[in-house]
Each structure stands twice: as structure tokens, then as C-alpha cells.
Design a protein that fits this description.
Layout (H helix, E strand, L loop, with lengths): L1 E2 L5 E2 L19 E5 L2 E8 L8 E7 L9 H4 L1 H9 L3 E5 L18 H15 L2 E11 L1 H12 L6 E5 L28 E2 L1 E2 L6 H7 L1
Parallel strand pairs: 5-6, 5-7, 7-8
Antiparallel strand pairs: 1-2, 3-4, 4-6, 9-10
């Protein structure tokens, strides 16, 4: 345990991976509907022999597509698959709410991600310490929400034009590191001003 900003105590234990609770997907480069979540794009590299692979949960922006990561996060996505890792990126939602700002995604989608994470750890040698989340705009908001609501297994988050619209409770005592990117005040605005919404950085540090 170590002291955090503002006196908060942050516990850095092993990640808690959800149990496998049903069928797992065939891990190929494809798009599937999975557990009621439509259009989940999957990208995979060659499975490593040991549990060393990273995994990325990517959330696209409003009006964009599940394949957004290939353009907006090209070096990251290429690095993930080159290391034998897994990327999952949903197109739709099982029920959007304000976690993504524009009802594009919702907290219920994380139950599907739990199963995908559990399956990837079991079937693809994903390292439980290397599970990350990214997204842009509405996806950036959802990436921040994912880091908070799944802080037991998210290693780090990188929202692009994201932040916090709601202030949910952390799942556990682990505080995922955060790197956030946004434009200048007044220039990066889609419903919310992402410059102002960068308070997510302080929120993730302080709880």
C-alpha cells in the first residue's frame, strides 16, 4: 500500500480477472456479435507461448466505427498485435448511458468486456497485468469510465478527448495510471468541453 494524492491510500495488488462464465469467441481477426453486444471487432497477433500478451479494450467516438483504433491509435494497435496481444472494440452497445456522454456505450457493456477479458487470459495467454483501455471522444469518456468501473483489472487508460461526465465509485483500491489528450479550451467541444473535462486526471488520482 502507498499514499496517494490528498492522503488517499492506493493498494497495488494483483489484478482481479473475472471468471469465465460462458462461451468464449474464436480468437481470429473478425467482427462478431457477442453476448448481445453488436459488432465487436477483434484483432489478434500470434499467440505467445507464455502469458505475456497485452490486451486493449478500445471504444470509438460518436459517429465513428469499431475499426477506429487502426487509424487513431495505429502505433498502439500495431504494438499490441505484434506482441501477440488482443484488441476488442465494439461498434454498438447493450444499453448506453452517460458513461460515454452521448449514450454510445454504457456500463452494461463492461459485463461483456469482463467475459472477453476472462477468455483472453484463459485462451490467448494475455498477461493480467497488461490489460489497457483507450478511446476517443465518447469513447474517451467510456475509456475513463472503464478504468474506474473496472479498476480491479485495468492496468492503465489513455482517453483522447475524454474525461468524466459521471463520477462512479472505483471498483477497487487500485488506481489505474492515466494519460489524457485534448484540445485547447473552446476548441475541442462536442457536448462537453474536453479541456474542462480533463478533471478526470485529478479524479483518477484522488478518487
Amino acid at each position: 500500500m502507498s499514499p496517494g494524492t490528498g492522503g488517499m491510500v492506493v493498494t497495488k495488488g494483483d489484478p482481479v480477472i473475472p471468471p469465465v462464465s460462458g462461451d468464449c469467441p474464436a480468437w481470429t481477426n473478425t467482427t462478431i456479435d457477442f453476448m448481445g453486444l453488436p459488432g465487436v471487432q477483434i484483432a489478434v497477433g500470434a499467440k505467445p507461448e507464455a502469458p505475456t500478451a497485452p490486451m486493449l479494450l478500445y471504444w470509438h467516438g460518436t459517429g465513428s466505427t469499431a475499426g477506429e483504433f487502426a487509424a487513431l491509435a495505429a502505433p498502439v494497435s500495431q504494438g499490441i498485435t505484434a506482441a501477440g496481444g488482443v484488441i476488442v472494440s465494439p461498434q454498438g452497445t447493450t444499453g448506453g448511458d452517460l458513461n460515454s456522454g452521448t449514450l454510445i456505450f454504457g456500463a452494461s457493456d463492461l459485463k461483456v468486456m469482463d467475459q472477453l477479458v476472462a477468455c483472453a487470459v484463459k485462451d490467448r495467454n494475455v498477461d493480467p497485468h497488461k490489460i489497457y483501455t483507450m478511446g476517443c471522444s465518447a469513447g474517451g469518456l467510456m475509456a475513463t469510465a472503464t478504468a474506474i468501473l473496472r479498476s480491479n483489472y485495468i492496468a492503465a487508460a489513455a482517453p483522447n478527448s475524454g474525461g468524466v461526465t459521471l463520477a462512479p465509485a472505483f471498483e477497487g483500491m487500485h488506481t489505474p495510471p492515466l494519460m489524457t489528450v485534448h484540445g485547447a479550451m473552446g476548441s475541442d467541444v462536442v457536448i462537453v468541453d474536453f479541456f474542462t473535462d480533463e478533471r478526470c486526471g485529478r479524479y483518477l488520482v484522488q478518487g
